[in-house]
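Input structure tokens:
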């Protein structure tokens, strides 16, 4: 599994990992804020962006994919920043390479198994688009809107709708994501990681809740937490300056 990635800047290495349905570009505002002081590596996870597709999709496999990129770049120590599903990939990497971490920053995700199916409408919309021959993005949005009502969510998804040799298509592996959705929402606990860790929560998001504190403390006993007011799950897009400042402060002070 040879992931697609891009490198910006020089200095200590920071790896950025996007969430479900995303790509390396999703954390672009954060990458731009960090690249003046750090070497920033933005990764497309398997089944996303320009990376290869696969039928298997476990967090351990995705963590190993990312570690392979880090090794290819000849990087020994690094910091990891992951949003949502990418946060779980980052947390899973602590089991494979704990001594090599400088910092772990998890954006709005807990190390737990989620039991609420949050993406049924998205999958229905993606399949709706796939059922039609589409010649431009506006046509894709029309089909997508039958199931995905929020314009912002549609625009986010359409960032991964690209022209190929055989016409327009989704860059992510729609059927592979659907088949592995229980695994994506699930979680296998990792051994205790005592490195420098920060969880950043969107105040209005339901991905980190009070009932998750015990699981976080058990697996990441040294973790600190920061809440970003008046933001949801996409906190880094809703308040980029605030989130970027929180991250920079943690990287420089911890």
């Amino acid at each position: 599994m040879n992931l697609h990635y891009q490198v910006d800047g020089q200095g200590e290495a920071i790896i950025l990992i996007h969430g479900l349905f995303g790509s390396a570009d999703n954390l672009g505002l954060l990458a731009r804020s960090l690249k003046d002081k750090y070497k920033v590596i933005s990764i497309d996870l398997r089944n996303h962006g320009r990376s290869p597709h696969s039928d298997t999709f476990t967090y351990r496999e995705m963590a190993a994919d990312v570690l392979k990129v880090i090794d290819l770049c000849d990087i020994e120590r690094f910091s990891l920043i992951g949003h949502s599903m990418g946060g779980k990939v980052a947390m899973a990497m602590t089991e494979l390479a704990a001594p090599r971490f400088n910092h772990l920053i998890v954006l709005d995700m807990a190390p737990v198994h989620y039991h609420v199916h949050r993406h049924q409408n998205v999958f229905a919309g993606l399949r709706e688009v796939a059922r039609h021959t589409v010649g431009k993005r506006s046509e894709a949005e029309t089909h997508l809107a039958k199931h995905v009502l929020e314009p912002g969510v549609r625009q986010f998804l359409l960032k991964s709708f690209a022209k190929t040799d055989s016409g327009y298509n989704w860059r992510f592996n729609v059927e592979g994501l659907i088949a592995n959705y229980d695994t994506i929402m699930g979680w296998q606990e990792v051994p205790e990681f005592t490195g420098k860790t920060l969880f950043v929560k969107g105040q209005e998001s339901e991905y980190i809740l009070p009932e998750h504190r015990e699981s976080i403390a058990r697996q990441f006993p040294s973790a600190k937490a920061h809440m970003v007011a008046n933001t949801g799950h996409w906190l880094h897009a809703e308040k980029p300056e605030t989130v970027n400042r929180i991250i920079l402060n943690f990287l420089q002070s911890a």
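The chain has two domains: 5-114+186-253, 120-179. The first strand starts at residue 5 and ends at 8.
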